[in-house]
Amino acid sequence: MNKRYRQRGAVAIIIGLMMVVLVGFIGLAIDFGYAYVKKNQVQNVADAEALACVINPTSAPCPIGTTAGDLYPDVNTYGFTVISTENPGDNSLCPLPATQSHCARVSVSGTWNTFFIPLFGQTTLTVQSVAIAGKQGGGPGCIIASSYFNVSGSQGINGSNCANYFGSVSVNGNPPITGTANYIYNGNAPASCTSCQPPAIGVSGPLVAPTLSSPPYKPSTPGTISGFTGTAATTLTCPTKATCTLGPGRYNGLDCSNSLSVCNLMPTDTTPAGSTFEFDGTFQGPGNNGTMVGNKVVLYLGGNGQSVNLAGGGSLTLTSPSPTSGPCSGSVTPESQIVIYAPNTGTLNYNGNVASNITGNIYAPGFGFGLGGNGGLNVAGTVVVSSYTDNGGGNSGLTSNGANTCGFTPNGSGQVILVD
């Protein structure tokens, strides 16, 4: 009898100890389950703060640099601490800078009193989360065609170190369309770019051409004229087999399409007044084995509804006044790299049978750009146009290397997304 009573006492002790352990495990489950909920809440706040910083990067709560603050108080109703916001204004925080831009990083923490684990000496718990948001579809462009991109020829775009931005795409055949990335805006299907490599990424928002902080210099008087027939107020024509030179200034039309004519655009210096050539009327580039050379110049196409033919059967060489290597830094900006500027509407065509080279950015957001012939065009910069059409053959096509210049990106380009 006494032995049975002793066993009953032992079972009671074991059950009591097990209850303590069980309650301990339940307490741990409650505390750490609550920690899991808090971790998700902190991460949600960090995500919202980072997205808000990218959506409105210049607002007071999200300045350039590092600071503490609450960018999105409607979400942060939990009383969490926004430790820091980092918004350097470039791609330095982006995990994939080739396809992401304008990234911001936010760090958020939350601390609370525990329920049961104070029994183990842990009175509070703290979790911290970091979020990086940015824009998918950023970076220097090979081409920015805000309306549409249409290719029906045998050649397309050979892009290197730059992305392609299309309002919409129409491809007939299988011409190569390459770049670091390809983006199709306005909700158009990425599958419409059948030959895009890498495959196109769809962006629901509109494609908006970049805006200029300061447009190129606009001349008011003509410069020196040698070898041309006509006047600055009419059309300057370079005769067959003649060598003609033109100084910076304002002119009406230019015709360098005669056989074997040589047209030299001769800047007086690299200042805006010494490098800008404005043409408000018809512009005919070199044809029939002729040439046109303009080193360190800006072609200002000032007419409205203007018809511009960069080249026919001749070769064209143009370079911008500013240095053309390296990224945007200091005085080097996309604006300083412009070699062709057209602020109004019109058509810009290249129908050459000889490969030509343009080193600098083409900024003609209201112009339709047409590429034909068999020569092809090499552009070390960004082509900003309303529409782009290529129906050429042979070696026709656009070759663009965005690394050679400080190229443009679309205005507010890309979708705001969490990138990490």
What report would you give on this structure?
This protein has about 425 residues and is mostly beta strands. The protein folds into two domains: about 1-135, no CATH class; about 140-410, no CATH class. It is built from two helices and 32 strands. It has helices spanning about 1-55, 270-275; strands spanning about 65, 80-85, 100-115, 125-135, 140-150, 155-160, 165, 170, 175-180, 180-185, 195, 200, 225, 235, 245, 250, 255, 260-265, 275-280, 285, 290-295, 300, 305-310, 315-320, 340, 345-350, 355-360, 360-370, 375-380, 385-390, 400, 415-420. The strands form three sheets. It has a 16-stranded parallel β-sheet that branches. The longest helix is centred in the first third of the chain and has 54 residues, at about 1-55. It is elongated and about 120 Å long. The chain starts with a helix and ends with a strand.
Number of domains: 2
Q: Determine the number of helices (DSSP H or I, runs of at least 4 residues).
A: 2
Helical residues, percent: 10-25%
Structural class: mainly beta
How would you sum up the major sheet? 16 strands, parallel
Strand element count:
32
- How far apart the termini lie comes to 70 Å
Tell me what portion of residues adopts beta-strand conformation.
35-45%
Low-confidence residue ranges: none
Measured on Cα atoms, how large is the radius of gyration?
Answer: 31 Å
Q: Globular, elongated, flat, extended or rod-shaped: what is the shape?
A: elongated
Average pLDDT, all residues: 84
